[in-house]
């Protein structure tokens, strides 16, 4: 596998700021698909050897992903839950690959599971804990505080299966808030929301606005064609940037009226401009 110069020139934000996390199935003989995913619009590509493959294909898919990571490819990998035998198999094959950028741990439910995963990886390998159950949501702060936890993400589909909750934003406000607050309390970047299904393109903008309103700064993505919309909507808009600048100018004016709202208002405006600069959209 050879990474083309065009792919190498693409500038992507650090994973702590990544807006789109593309789940690319780790298909057997999938090297061309992996190359295409890396050349696409997503900030982070996650080769999926968990739910992205039927069980019968997992051994061959795991090997294909490992071979790609050993021969010049670079990506994250979503691995199986600690409670499955496949977790150990995934790590045995993938942990030493030089192209492994990070691991997304499926169905995380405790800090111990994050620690056990990190212990089998090279030092410093970031682990995103994918929380997909009621127990995971209620353990979110402990998970976020695990030393190896780099960020947390919301697996909406499995969470709904576990709890019976609908996908309506009002019904999922509580778990989203738990993840946002846990991330902040643990000093992590804001969490990554779940994806919009491939066959629901019309819902993509609204779903992304809900995630942003909830305080999330990334989304899982199942289709690269969704990535640009998510990136645009999760980045500060020109209107937001202009409003932040006007706010700071107003607060800095000699005649500015200060009350208890001035500090938080300034901090929010500065945060918008800081994020815009880091994402290179200013």
TrEMBL record:
A biological process term (GO) from this entry: oxaloacetate metabolic process
Keyword terms of this UniProt record: Magnesium, Metal-binding
What organism is the protein native to?
Mycolicibacterium hippocampi
Cofactor dependence: Mg(2+)
Q: Which residues bind substrate?
A: 78, 132
Q: Which residues of this UniProt protein bind Mg(2+)? A: 132, 158
> Pfam families annotated for this entry?
HpcH_HpaI (PF03328)
Q: What's the protein called, per UniProt? A: HpcH/HpaI aldolase/citrate lyase domain-containing protein
Its taxonomic placement starts with: Bacteria, Bacillati, Actinomycetota, Actinomycetes, Mycobacteriales
Q: Where's the HpcH/HpaI aldolase/citrate lyase domain?
A: 36-189
| Molecular function as annotated in GO | catalytic activity; magnesium ion binding
**Is this entry keyworded Magnesium?**
yes
